[in-house]
Amino acid sequence: MNPFPTPYATLLGDLPALDSALQTAIAEVQAATAGLEALSNAPISIAAVDGTAVQLDVSHGGARFGETHYSASLLKVAVMYAAFELLAAARRVASSAGSAADLYAKLHTAYDDEIDNATAPTIAATPGLTKPQRLPRYEQIIVATPLAGGGVRCSFQDGFANEMLAMMLKSSNDSAATCISALGCSWNYGTLTAGGFFFAPTSSGVWLAGTFTGALPAARIPSINDGPVAQAATTFDLANMVAHMRNGTLVDAESSNHMLDILAATATGGVDPSWMDFTRRPGYPARSFSVTHTKIGLGPLKGGSEVASEGSIVEHSDTGRQFIVVWQNCPHDHDTIVGMGAVSRGRSSAS
Question: Which residues contact 217 (CB under 8 A, 6 or more apart)?
Answer without folding.
Answer: 126, 127, 128, 129
